[in-house]
Amino acid sequence: MQPSNPKTLLILSDGKPGHLNQSIAFARLLGYDYAVCRVAFAVRFTKALSYLCDHLGIYTASLFRVLDTLPQECCAVVSAGSATYYANRTLGRTLSVPSVAIMYPGGYSPGFDLIIAQEHDAPPVRDNIVTIPLNLSAPQPLGLVRKEGSGPTVALIIGGPSRHYRMDPQELGKQLATVFSLFPGGDFLVTTSRRTPAEVEKMVEDGPFRYRVIASREKVNPIADFLAIADYVFVTEDSTSMISEAVSFGSARVEVLPLVRTGAHNKVAGMVASLAADGYLHLFDGTVGDCGRKFDLKPLLEGRFPCA
Hints:
By secondary structure, the chain is of the alpha/beta class. 29% of the residues lie in helices and 21% in strands. It has nine helices and 15 strands.
Protein backbone atom coordinates (compact mmCIF):
# COMPACT_ATOMS: atom_id res chain seq x y z
CA MET A 1 0.00 0.00 0.00
CA GLN A 2 1.10 3.59 -0.69
CA PRO A 3 0.92 6.43 1.90
CA SER A 4 -1.92 8.90 1.53
CA ASN A 5 -3.82 11.71 3.18
CA PRO A 6 -6.87 10.31 5.08
CA LYS A 7 -8.98 12.72 2.98
CA THR A 8 -7.98 10.84 -0.15
CA LEU A 9 -10.43 9.45 -2.67
CA LEU A 10 -9.61 6.10 -4.20
CA ILE A 11 -10.38 6.54 -7.90
CA LEU A 12 -10.78 3.38 -9.94
CA SER A 13 -9.89 3.64 -13.63
CA ASP A 14 -10.91 1.48 -16.59
CA GLY A 15 -8.22 3.12 -18.72
CA LYS A 16 -10.64 5.42 -20.57
CA PRO A 17 -9.60 9.09 -20.18
CA GLY A 18 -13.19 10.37 -20.47
CA HIS A 19 -14.24 8.24 -17.50
CA LEU A 20 -11.14 8.90 -15.39
CA ASN A 21 -11.28 12.66 -15.96
CA GLN A 22 -14.82 12.85 -14.58
CA SER A 23 -13.77 11.06 -11.39
CA ILE A 24 -10.77 13.37 -11.04
CA ALA A 25 -13.06 16.36 -11.59
CA PHE A 26 -15.24 15.13 -8.71
CA ALA A 27 -12.19 15.15 -6.41
CA ARG A 28 -10.98 18.56 -7.60
CA LEU A 29 -14.38 20.22 -7.31
CA LEU A 30 -14.63 19.12 -3.67
CA GLY A 31 -10.97 19.79 -2.82
CA TYR A 32 -9.94 16.20 -2.10
CA ASP A 33 -6.65 14.45 -2.78
CA TYR A 34 -6.97 11.31 -4.86
CA ALA A 35 -5.10 8.14 -5.77
CA VAL A 36 -5.82 6.38 -9.07
CA CYS A 37 -5.81 2.60 -9.34
CA ARG A 38 -6.59 0.69 -12.51
CA VAL A 39 -9.01 -2.24 -12.30
CA ALA A 40 -10.04 -4.89 -14.81
CA PHE A 41 -12.23 -7.97 -14.75
CA ALA A 42 -10.27 -11.19 -14.21
CA VAL A 43 -11.54 -12.70 -17.49
CA ARG A 44 -14.13 -11.54 -20.01
CA PHE A 45 -17.13 -13.53 -18.73
CA THR A 46 -16.73 -12.22 -15.17
CA LYS A 47 -18.21 -8.87 -16.18
CA ALA A 48 -21.50 -10.60 -17.03
CA LEU A 49 -21.25 -12.54 -13.78
CA SER A 50 -20.68 -9.31 -11.84
CA TYR A 51 -24.14 -8.02 -12.76
CA LEU A 52 -25.74 -11.13 -11.27
CA CYS A 53 -23.54 -11.07 -8.16
CA ASP A 54 -24.30 -7.39 -7.59
CA HIS A 55 -28.07 -7.95 -7.67
CA LEU A 56 -27.67 -10.93 -5.32
CA GLY A 57 -25.54 -8.86 -2.93
CA ILE A 58 -22.44 -10.99 -3.48
CA TYR A 59 -19.21 -8.98 -3.58
CA THR A 60 -15.95 -10.84 -4.13
CA ALA A 61 -12.54 -9.60 -5.24
CA SER A 62 -12.05 -12.79 -7.23
CA LEU A 63 -14.02 -11.30 -10.15
CA PHE A 64 -11.57 -8.45 -10.83
CA ARG A 65 -7.94 -7.41 -10.57
CA VAL A 66 -6.49 -4.25 -9.02
CA LEU A 67 -3.53 -3.33 -11.22
CA ASP A 68 -1.94 -0.64 -9.02
CA THR A 69 -1.05 -0.24 -5.35
CA LEU A 70 -3.97 0.76 -3.15
CA PRO A 71 -3.54 3.75 -0.80
CA GLN A 72 -3.16 3.03 2.90
CA GLU A 73 -6.24 5.10 3.70
CA CYS A 74 -9.11 6.58 1.74
CA CYS A 75 -12.45 8.15 2.61
CA ALA A 76 -14.42 6.90 -0.41
CA VAL A 77 -14.15 4.89 -3.61
CA VAL A 78 -15.07 6.80 -6.79
CA SER A 79 -15.31 5.56 -10.38
CA ALA A 80 -16.95 5.97 -13.78
CA GLY A 81 -17.59 3.26 -16.35
CA SER A 82 -19.20 -0.18 -16.28
CA ALA A 83 -15.83 -1.93 -15.94
CA THR A 84 -15.33 -0.27 -12.54
CA TYR A 85 -18.67 -0.31 -10.75
CA TYR A 86 -18.53 -3.84 -9.32
CA ALA A 87 -14.98 -3.29 -8.05
CA ASN A 88 -16.14 0.03 -6.61
CA ARG A 89 -18.90 -1.61 -4.54
CA THR A 90 -16.63 -4.48 -3.48
CA LEU A 91 -13.70 -2.32 -2.38
CA GLY A 92 -16.06 0.14 -0.67
CA ARG A 93 -17.40 -2.70 1.46
CA THR A 94 -13.93 -4.15 2.10
CA LEU A 95 -12.50 -0.79 3.17
CA SER A 96 -15.69 0.28 5.00
CA VAL A 97 -15.96 3.54 3.05
CA PRO A 98 -18.71 5.00 0.82
CA SER A 99 -18.95 4.10 -2.88
CA VAL A 100 -19.55 6.88 -5.43
CA ALA A 101 -20.55 6.20 -9.05
CA ILE A 102 -19.97 8.85 -11.69
CA MET A 103 -22.58 8.38 -14.47
CA TYR A 104 -25.62 6.21 -13.89
CA PRO A 105 -24.46 2.57 -13.42
CA GLY A 106 -27.02 0.96 -15.72
CA GLY A 107 -27.28 -2.80 -15.24
CA TYR A 108 -26.00 -2.63 -11.67
CA SER A 109 -27.99 -2.00 -8.51
CA PRO A 110 -28.37 1.73 -7.75
CA GLY A 111 -27.35 1.03 -4.14
CA PHE A 112 -24.24 3.21 -4.22
CA ASP A 113 -23.88 5.76 -1.44
CA LEU A 114 -23.90 8.48 -4.08
CA ILE A 115 -24.51 8.51 -7.85
CA ILE A 116 -23.76 11.52 -10.05
CA ALA A 117 -25.94 10.97 -13.13
CA GLN A 118 -26.42 12.97 -16.32
CA GLU A 119 -29.94 14.10 -17.22
CA HIS A 120 -29.72 12.51 -20.68
CA ASP A 121 -29.47 9.05 -19.03
CA ALA A 122 -32.93 9.61 -17.48
CA PRO A 123 -31.95 8.34 -14.01
CA PRO A 124 -34.66 7.44 -11.48
CA VAL A 125 -35.47 9.83 -8.64
CA ARG A 126 -33.68 8.55 -5.53
CA ASP A 127 -32.19 10.22 -2.45
CA ASN A 128 -28.70 8.99 -3.38
CA ILE A 129 -28.77 10.32 -6.96
CA VAL A 130 -27.65 13.83 -7.96
CA THR A 131 -28.72 14.66 -11.51
CA ILE A 132 -26.68 17.13 -13.57
CA PRO A 133 -27.21 18.38 -17.16
CA LEU A 134 -23.58 17.85 -18.26
CA ASN A 135 -20.45 15.84 -17.54
CA LEU A 136 -18.32 16.51 -14.49
CA SER A 137 -15.28 18.59 -15.39
CA ALA A 138 -12.69 20.74 -13.63
CA PRO A 139 -10.33 22.14 -16.30
CA GLN A 140 -6.88 23.31 -15.18
CA PRO A 141 -4.95 25.62 -17.55
CA LEU A 142 -1.35 24.59 -18.21
CA GLY A 143 -0.01 27.89 -19.57
CA LEU A 144 0.37 26.48 -23.09
CA VAL A 145 -0.92 29.61 -24.85
CA ARG A 146 -1.53 33.18 -23.79
CA LYS A 147 -3.79 35.98 -24.97
CA GLU A 148 -2.24 38.25 -27.61
CA GLY A 149 -3.35 41.36 -29.46
CA SER A 150 -6.33 43.62 -29.00
CA GLY A 151 -8.82 41.68 -31.11
CA PRO A 152 -11.16 38.96 -29.84
CA THR A 153 -9.60 35.61 -29.02
CA VAL A 154 -11.56 32.89 -30.83
CA ALA A 155 -10.87 29.24 -29.94
CA LEU A 156 -12.06 26.26 -31.95
CA ILE A 157 -12.28 22.76 -30.46
CA ILE A 158 -12.80 20.17 -33.19
CA GLY A 159 -13.78 16.58 -32.48
CA GLY A 160 -14.73 13.95 -35.02
CA PRO A 161 -17.19 11.23 -36.03
CA SER A 162 -18.88 9.42 -33.15
CA ARG A 163 -21.70 7.00 -32.44
CA HIS A 164 -24.18 9.86 -32.67
CA TYR A 165 -22.65 12.13 -35.33
CA ARG A 166 -21.05 12.14 -38.76
CA MET A 167 -18.55 14.87 -39.60
CA ASP A 168 -18.86 16.30 -43.12
CA PRO A 169 -15.51 18.02 -43.89
CA GLN A 170 -17.04 20.24 -46.59
CA GLU A 171 -19.81 21.48 -44.30
CA LEU A 172 -17.32 22.02 -41.47
CA GLY A 173 -15.12 23.99 -43.86
CA LYS A 174 -18.06 26.29 -44.64
CA GLN A 175 -18.71 26.76 -40.93
CA LEU A 176 -15.08 27.65 -40.27
CA ALA A 177 -15.04 30.12 -43.18
CA THR A 178 -18.09 31.84 -41.68
CA VAL A 179 -16.43 32.00 -38.26
CA PHE A 180 -13.33 33.62 -39.76
CA SER A 181 -15.48 36.20 -41.57
CA LEU A 182 -17.34 37.10 -38.37
CA PHE A 183 -14.09 38.04 -36.59
CA PRO A 184 -11.89 39.89 -39.14
CA GLY A 185 -9.44 40.98 -36.43
CA GLY A 186 -9.66 37.78 -34.43
CA ASP A 187 -6.84 35.81 -32.87
CA PHE A 188 -7.66 32.20 -33.78
CA LEU A 189 -6.64 29.14 -31.77
CA VAL A 190 -7.53 25.53 -32.55
CA THR A 191 -7.16 21.98 -31.32
CA THR A 192 -8.36 18.76 -32.90
CA SER A 193 -9.09 15.44 -31.18
CA ARG A 194 -7.90 11.89 -31.72
CA ARG A 195 -11.10 11.28 -33.72
CA THR A 196 -10.61 14.16 -36.17
CA PRO A 197 -10.42 12.94 -39.81
CA ALA A 198 -7.20 13.54 -41.78
CA GLU A 199 -9.07 15.78 -44.25
CA VAL A 200 -10.15 18.06 -41.42
CA GLU A 201 -6.63 18.06 -39.96
CA LYS A 202 -5.35 19.34 -43.33
CA MET A 203 -8.01 22.07 -43.24
CA VAL A 204 -6.82 23.10 -39.80
CA GLU A 205 -3.20 23.19 -40.92
CA ASP A 206 -4.11 25.56 -43.75
CA GLY A 207 -6.30 27.83 -41.60
CA PRO A 208 -5.39 31.27 -40.17
CA PHE A 209 -4.55 30.00 -36.70
CA ARG A 210 -1.89 31.56 -34.49
CA TYR A 211 -1.81 28.44 -32.33
CA ARG A 212 -2.84 24.94 -33.36
CA VAL A 213 -2.66 21.44 -31.92
CA ILE A 214 -3.11 18.36 -34.11
CA ALA A 215 -4.04 15.81 -31.45
CA SER A 216 -3.12 12.76 -33.55
CA ARG A 217 0.50 13.94 -33.51
CA GLU A 218 0.86 15.92 -30.29
CA LYS A 219 0.10 14.70 -26.78
CA VAL A 220 -1.02 18.14 -25.63
CA ASN A 221 -4.44 19.21 -24.44
CA PRO A 222 -4.83 23.01 -24.59
CA ILE A 223 -8.60 23.11 -24.03
CA ALA A 224 -8.39 24.49 -20.48
CA ASP A 225 -6.02 27.23 -21.68
CA PHE A 226 -8.39 28.10 -24.53
CA LEU A 227 -11.30 28.40 -22.14
CA ALA A 228 -9.26 30.58 -19.77
CA ILE A 229 -8.38 33.22 -22.38
CA ALA A 230 -10.97 33.05 -25.18
CA ASP A 231 -13.75 35.52 -25.81
CA TYR A 232 -15.57 32.98 -28.00
CA VAL A 233 -15.26 29.19 -28.06
CA PHE A 234 -16.61 27.11 -30.95
CA VAL A 235 -17.01 23.39 -30.17
CA THR A 236 -18.18 20.67 -32.56
CA GLU A 237 -21.37 18.96 -31.41
CA ASP A 238 -19.99 15.41 -31.03
CA SER A 239 -18.38 15.51 -27.59
CA THR A 240 -20.23 15.84 -24.30
CA SER A 241 -16.91 16.26 -22.47
CA MET A 242 -15.70 19.17 -24.63
CA ILE A 243 -19.06 20.92 -24.42
CA SER A 244 -19.28 20.34 -20.66
CA GLU A 245 -15.87 21.91 -20.11
CA ALA A 246 -16.78 24.92 -22.26
CA VAL A 247 -19.99 25.72 -20.36
CA SER A 248 -18.53 25.26 -16.89
CA PHE A 249 -15.17 27.09 -17.02
CA GLY A 250 -13.82 30.46 -18.12
CA SER A 251 -15.89 33.36 -19.40
CA ALA A 252 -16.07 32.71 -23.15
CA ARG A 253 -19.33 32.78 -25.07
CA VAL A 254 -19.94 29.24 -26.27
CA GLU A 255 -20.98 28.28 -29.81
CA VAL A 256 -21.68 24.67 -30.80
CA LEU A 257 -20.99 23.73 -34.44
CA PRO A 258 -23.79 21.36 -35.58
CA LEU A 259 -22.84 18.03 -37.16
CA VAL A 260 -24.87 15.42 -39.04
CA ARG A 261 -26.85 13.19 -36.68
CA THR A 262 -26.68 9.45 -37.32
CA GLY A 263 -29.92 8.44 -35.58
CA ALA A 264 -33.15 9.73 -34.08
CA HIS A 265 -32.24 8.85 -30.46
CA ASN A 266 -29.35 11.13 -29.59
CA LYS A 267 -28.39 11.78 -25.97
CA VAL A 268 -25.82 14.40 -26.91
CA ALA A 269 -28.35 16.42 -28.90
CA GLY A 270 -30.67 16.34 -25.89
CA MET A 271 -27.91 17.67 -23.65
CA VAL A 272 -27.05 20.44 -26.15
CA ALA A 273 -30.70 21.46 -26.49
CA SER A 274 -31.13 21.62 -22.71
CA LEU A 275 -28.03 23.76 -22.22
CA ALA A 276 -29.03 26.02 -25.11
CA ALA A 277 -32.50 26.55 -23.63
CA ASP A 278 -30.91 27.67 -20.36
CA GLY A 279 -28.51 30.10 -22.04
CA TYR A 280 -25.25 28.20 -21.55
CA LEU A 281 -24.53 27.84 -25.28
CA HIS A 282 -25.75 28.85 -28.73
CA LEU A 283 -26.16 26.40 -31.61
CA PHE A 284 -24.20 28.09 -34.39
CA ASP A 285 -26.40 29.13 -37.31
CA GLY A 286 -24.09 31.54 -39.09
CA THR A 287 -24.51 34.15 -36.38
CA VAL A 288 -23.09 34.25 -32.86
CA GLY A 289 -25.13 34.41 -29.70
CA ASP A 290 -24.31 35.92 -26.32
CA CYS A 291 -24.18 32.76 -24.23
CA GLY A 292 -21.47 33.22 -21.63
CA ARG A 293 -23.38 31.77 -18.68
CA LYS A 294 -21.40 29.12 -16.78
CA PHE A 295 -22.73 26.11 -14.91
CA ASP A 296 -21.35 25.81 -11.37
CA LEU A 297 -21.19 22.13 -10.46
CA LYS A 298 -19.71 22.49 -6.99
CA PRO A 299 -22.90 23.53 -5.11
CA LEU A 300 -24.70 20.45 -6.41
CA LEU A 301 -22.04 18.18 -4.93
CA GLU A 302 -21.34 19.89 -1.60
CA GLY A 303 -23.34 18.50 1.25
CA ARG A 304 -24.20 15.33 -0.67
CA PHE A 305 -20.79 13.68 -0.45
CA PRO A 306 -20.94 10.85 2.12
CA CYS A 307 -17.60 11.54 3.79
CA ALA A 308 -17.67 15.37 3.66
